[in-house]
Design brief:
Blueprint lengths: L8 E5 L4 H12 L3 E6 L2 H11 L3 E5 L5 H7 L7 E4 L15 H29 L2 E6 L12 H21 L4 E8 L15 H9 L7 H13 L8 E4 L18
Parallel strand pairs: 1-2, 1-4, 2-3, 4-5, 5-6, 6-7
Bound molecules: NADP nicotinamide-adenine-dinucleotide phosphate.
NADP nicotinamide-adenine-dinucleotide phosphate binds next to α1 and β2.
Length: 253
Amino acid sequence: MSMPNGYRNAVVTGASRGIGAAIARRLVAEGMTVHGVARSGDGLAALAQDVGPAFIPCVADVRDVEAIMARLDGVEIDVLVNNAGALSSVRPLVEQSAEETEAVIALNLTAPLQLMRRVLPGMIARQRGHVFNLTSTAGRAVLPGTTAYAAAKAGLSQACHVLRHDLAGAGVRLTEIAPARVETDFYLDSFGGDSAGLREKLFTTQRALTPEDVAATIWAALSLPAHADISEIVITSTDQAAGGQVFAQHRSS
Ligand SMILES: NC(=O)c1ccc[n+]([C@@H]2O[C@H](COP(=O)([O-])OP(=O)(O)OC[C@H]3O[C@@H](n4cnc5c(N)ncnc54)[C@H](OP(=O)(O)O)[C@@H]3O)[C@@H](O)[C@H]2O)c1
């Protein structure tokens, strides 16, 4: 199978489940070799078993960028999908521990920046490559209880705007994808591990996006001619409008 723009190798972070697994699955189906990064060896191994040898597990914490780069030594990375991310909890910033706030920023903002810093030089030298950063509508509209997460996603979005100037003329594409609600286990921790409750509350009365919808969006952007660079995509299901208003109850002292 001949790949659009000669792309052969992809790195997808957070490939053990959810959106990242769907992206990895789609890219392999389209003929790419995919290096999937996550901490859960079991999740990656199950995917490898399912899709075959074109999916190569890379068990690592995405915050340990040097360990990932060591594992990818010699691989010409054509596509990087910075997808790994987590919310940890939905509650006011003042109720988070210092460690939780720091961990949310390290995972959702610092890690993708560090990976791009290490992967982009090869793409620039080859004048070929496409980076995707998964942000969120939470980085654009207000989702109460997500201060650190939303700030990290908004920061990553702004990093894309600035980076595009660094990359102009380099032949390297950079696409931000900001999904609204996607049916995964992303909110499971916030529901205290109650999977049935999560599904009942978030995915029963309104249709959410599926991970495959996001994977198809990535493939659509990848398939365009190499000079055509989609900068940003906001994607929601037809049952959701991102943002909205919240009216708090007035508290008398
Ligand atoms: N689901 C939504 O409604 C939604 C909406 C907007 C944006 N997003 C964004 O989409 C992306 C994927 O979310 P999802 O819904 O697919 O979530 P998910 O089902 O919870 O999957 C998250 C993935 O990230 C990986 N991950 C988490 N921490 C990691 C770490 N320290 N090192 C390496 N991998 C790590 C997880 O693997 P391990 O646990 O095995 O490490 C897993 O593969 C995230 O960036 C999220 O912010 C999701």
